[in-house]
Fold:
Amino acid sequence: MAAQPKAPQKTDSLEAARSGASTPSNDRLQARLAQAMARKASATKPESVTVPPDPSSPSPTDADADTRLDAAAAENDPADATRPTAPSAEQSASITPITQITSPAGHADDGEGATVPPSEKEGDRVSQERPASGLSSHHARQSLSARPSAESGLTDAADINSQVEQDKVVQEMSDEITGYIEKIDTLQAKLKYLASEAAQAAKQAAASAQNGTAEKKLLEKDVQITLLMEEGQTLSKNEMKHLQTIKKIRQQYLASTKEHEQTRARADKAERSLRIMEDKARRAEAAAKRAEQNLASSLNNANDFAAIKKERDALDATLADIKAQLSRATARAEEAESRAGTEQLERERKRIAELQDDLTSSKIERELAEEKLRREIKDLKASLEREKEHSRLIETEMLGEQATLEGKLESFRARAEEVSSSTQGSVQAKLLRQIETLQNQYSAASQNWQRIEGSLLARITALEKERDEIAARESDVRKKVREVTLRARKAETEVEESHTRLAELEKSQIETEEETHRADRRIRQLEADLRKAQQELQDQKAQAQKDLNTQLEEERAKWAATVQPPRVESPIATLRRGSSLALDLSAGPPERAVSRRTSHLAIRELFTPPRQQSTASVKTMSNGTIVEAPYLVTSNDPDEYYNNFPQTPISQSHAFSGHAGPDLVSNSTIGAGPSVQLVERLSSNVRRLESEKAASKDEIIRLTTQRDEARQEVVDLVREVDAKKKVDERLAELEAQHQELRQRYQTTLELLGEKSEQVEELKADIVDVKAMYRQLADTIGKA
Structure:
């Protein structure tokens, strides 16, 4: 009889446990708070408070709304307001995310004036507001930093004032955003404190409750629910932090790829400028060649030679400038590529370290979750076996009791028959009535027992089906966990391969940098040698031209001053001229000998006096132009003719032989000697200049080959940059796969949470079955 008053309390506790397992335990308190707010709003009739359209800035009335909610809750239910239990913590968790409270007068009595979203979304909202506020502050800083450059280009005072006002507004908005973020942080701290207090209070209540009672179990469930809520909040915050870090990493990666594209565009631009410079250099070389040909073909035109010399100097200056620009451009490109490569490598290392940390943490969490799941499944199986054994025992006890009752009934019938045979009819009728009542009670009890037995069998079959479903889900979860582990291992192997590839790329980059430095040093040395050779060539050409000009002026002055009758040319002079021609032909290669022969013949004809005062027309074909020599006259006086010529050993020997042996050397021979010597000296100078020209051409060919090698090295560097870009794309794919694995892991965690909720519901159903068994036992004992 003492167990009957406790039955409603047990059923209430069971209903509370089921409601706590399926829905939050603060619905009743939230409804009361909503009613209090509606009554207060209907009494004061305030306007609806809405937040501004910017999602990053919270409503400035959130704190006031929270204080009004707390005050209303305290006025409506003082006991709940002062009691630090789990619902109060959940109340604060559900009230803090409110961003809009509308309380029209028409709906004041409905109790729907306050919308309270679930507390699990608070971390998501706060974490979303923080990046948005950070972006707004970043935009504000960008606008402040870009203000001087914008104001420098503005000339209108009104635009400047509007810009200043806009900056002030942005600064005020950023200050408000920081204030709201501080308020959100304080509210989160308050929520955490209240949740911890609620958990402690629930633990204390669970410790103070009696062991084995439904109240203690309910309090333990409340403690577990509060702990799970705290854990869910922390997990959601951590998840949002990880998402923000991934977003930042993605932004950094996009910035690095953009910078890489810019460097590549600069490299392409430098390559195009290099090609343009090479074309200019080729044109300059062609112009130099043309200038040299013009110099060789137009010895009598000093003005043209000066113009060509100026053009050549200008082309050399432009070539030097182009080479300097090329060297500077290559240095800038190499520096930018090296800097971008080092920065990209550092970012990739940091990203890989973070990914490895995430993988290890996910592995540990997965192992812990699997171990917890195994323990729960094992406990559930053990509890199911115990319940089955208990149900079988109760069934056997019921069957025994039924057998005893049937035996008693048979004994009562036997006694009734004996009494009917020995007693009177009244007693017999009384006994018959008792027997009928007993039979009616027995039939009612048997019908009740059959109904209870059918319900128990249905419950048992439902539990067995749920057990099979749980086993199937467990197998699916294990398969998914296996797949996740395999993918994680694959991702780890790919990360290791990317590490090795990065190391190889670093080594190759260092080697290419060293090679480029060596090539730059070699190019600079070759350019210095080329400049030196060009300078020497120019000096030699200038000296030769100077000598030629002086000698030509002297010859012209002498021939113009003395006009003499023709004389017979000496055969010795002819022999000397022929020997000089033969020496010139045998001095160099065949093609050079032909050019030298033509030049020697032209010069000899130029400086040899014509016979019989005739015009010595010297026609030289060079670049399609024909140059005719001026009229030249001779004199028979050798002293007057050779006063201005320097004495050479050959001329001295000829003069001595002329004085000593007049039979061998005539006056005409002595007169022809210095001209032959001049021709020989000029031919030697021309040979030397042509040899130097050939050497300079060989040097230019060598420089062009080295330039081609440098271009090939630049192409190899571009290919290596493309390979590095492919490695970056592979890393991005690995990061996407890692994100997918994390999402799948989150889904497995959600499935695990659903499974734990199902387990809690099954435990609650088992508690209900136990209570029904106890009630049945009590009713049978009373009967």
User: Anything to note?
Assistant: DSSP finds 15 helices and two strands in the chain. The radius of gyration is 56 Å. Strands lie at 620-622, 625-627. Residues 425-561 form the longest helix (137 residues).
